[in-house]
Amino acid sequence: MDTAFKTRRTANIDFSKMYDLLKVGLPAGFGLMVNVAFWGMILFGLVGRFGTEALAATSA
What we know:
By secondary structure, this protein is mainly α. It has a domain at 25-60. 75% of the residues lie in helices and 0% in strands. The protein has helices at residues 2-5, 15-48, 52-58. The longest helix is centred in the middle third of the chain and has 34 residues, at 15-48. The radius of gyration is 23 Å and the shape is elongated. The chain crosses the membrane at residues 21-47. This is MATE family efflux transporter. Keywords: Membrane, Transmembrane, Transmembrane helix. It comes from marine sediment metagenome.
């Protein structure tokens, strides 16, 4: 299969590019996760004051 289609030639992994992507992507992903979790806690806290029915309706 490799001799016909040269599939292994294109499977090179450039670890320096991978590291550059992770340097940007991991902090951005962590920041997004913290932001979503923070707003989720605030919204559940606010909606929770309206009662259990409203809380159940928002967490379907």
